[in-house]
Amino acid sequence: MNFLRRRLSDSSFVANLPNGYMTDLQRPDSSTSSPASPAMERRHPQPLAASFSSPGSSLFSSFSSAMRQTSQAPLGLMEPPGPSTPVVQRPRILLVIDDAHTDWAKYFHGKKVNGEIEIRVEQAEFSELNLAAYVTGGCMVDMQVVRNGTKVVRSFKPDFILVRQHAYSMALGEDYRSLVIGLQYGGLPAVNSLYSVYNFCSKPWVFSQLIKIFHSLGPEKFPLVEQTFFPNHKPMLTAPHFPVVVKLGHAHAGMGKIKVENHHDYQDITSMVAMAKTYATTEAFIDSKYDIRIQKIGSNYKAYMRTSISGNWKANTGSAMLEQVAMTERYRLWVDSCSEMFGGLDVCAVKAVHSKDGRDYIIEVMDSSMPLIGEHVEEDKQLMADLVVSRMSQLPMPGGTVPSPLRPWAPQTKPAKSPGQAQLGPPLGQPQPRPPTQGGPRQAQSPQPPRSGSPSQQRLSPQGQQPLSPSSGSPQQQRSPGSPQLSRTSGGSSPNQVKPGTTLTSQPRPPLQGRSTSQQGEESKKPATPHPHLNKSQSLTNSLSTSDASQRGTPSEDEAKAETIRNLRKSFASLFSD
Description:
- Residues 89-190 form the Synapsin pre-ATP-grasp domain.
- One of its GO terms (cellular component) is synaptic vesicle membrane.
- The chain has helices spanning 2-9, 11-15, 38-43, 57-72, 177-185, 194-199, 203-217, 263-276, 329-338, 377-393, 517-525, 537-549, 555-577, and strands at 92-97, 112-113, 117-124, 129-133, 139-147, 150-156, 160-163, 168-169, 174-175, 190-191, 227-230, 244-248, 257-260, 280-284, 288-297, 300-308, 320-325, 347-355, 360-366.
- It is of the alpha+beta class.
- The strands form five sheets. The chain has a five-stranded mixed sheet with strand order 2-3-1-7-10, covered by helices on one side. A five-stranded antiparallel sheet has the order 17-16-15-18-19. A four-stranded antiparallel sheet has the order 11-14-12-13, with helices on one face.
């Protein structure tokens, strides 16, 4: 570009140009005739030659104008970009699976993810949802709800889910486990996790987790009620003692539970189990004084005591008196132990029975679909909303990744190497190359074309394990054609030394561990032909072969080898710099 401008500013060059090739750089009345800067104006004064207009000058003028625009970009003469428009994050969609009795949108009103991203709440029951899940496209949810007499149909891709409804109930004939599978298929996070929601679709399956905790903590710390499981009616011959409570299948709110007083009633219930074609459990009836419920929402704990007033053996049926009690360490241990099942439960509750003889029995654990009770229902809903926002804030942003706390990312920097310095071995503090296994092939260096009086040699690393590759940048491989080659002509103290005059071929190398002392001695006794070009470099190669012969020893010997390697590098660099 500058060369072209200097040529155009030369009057003798312009005078010799054919007619019609004058550029608009020389036109004083042109809008683009001003130079890029005052400094360029002083460097390139306008010539006094007259301008000519012809059809052929337009092409050259366009070319010159384009080059001027290119030259202005590095000089910073381009117009600065305008103020960047702030990027508006799309709102996060929260799907709350619950009935219409609770309006969850008001509990999330004004809340934002990370304090800046809005939350849009979509609420529906399991019966009002349908979906399609994809491997890379996530999960598309179709919702058909009736709000104030108006049918609302909407499709969206939720970012988070709050499950407040049972996915499976035999008593009501509701089975929405396929929706839970689809949400899990789409990889959606939830409170509680969809993995735990699916596992809570069978009460005996959940009770098996309580048995594990019972065996881990013992009956004193975790008093679990005695229970027997039957996969069908056939093994249900009799009960060890009466009265007993028979629970059929998977149901909630006291449904499917029967109190059996004697053996005859037990036989009648067995026939009902056969008709239901499901599993059943039996547990000893406990004459309770009151029920205990310990709930955990995030890090908030509450304990309640419920006493039946109507006299029904089911405390959750009929009239009952509910009051909040103190949270003891015993209760905290129960709920904390149960909150660890199925990968962790953010919301859970433990139900127990306190008998009239003063003993406690744990009978059940509930997940995030548990009903809220007591005077602090509004507070508990607000705690759930805060917990969901906290979990949503911990998720990675779209298009970004969150580094693992166990293995933080750190850039790996490569130490710079001087141009004339060859790396003879791995640096200090790094693991040494692994020796070849017995019988395994060894990579050999491709032989260089031999010169008269200086046959090609193979140079090993100081550890005597791997030959240096041609791309290692060693001085012998980067020398000029007229420089002499170096060869080791010591007395043969190294078992890995290659004798002069031999031709290298790519063939397997026997392992060092398999060589016997007698074989090494025979090789050391073979005469070596002196090389006419060796002078001061012979002592260096002798030192290198001596370090090859010595096997790995004490740490002091390794440090001495490392020091020898550093000295050899400096010697080679000074030798070939001449």
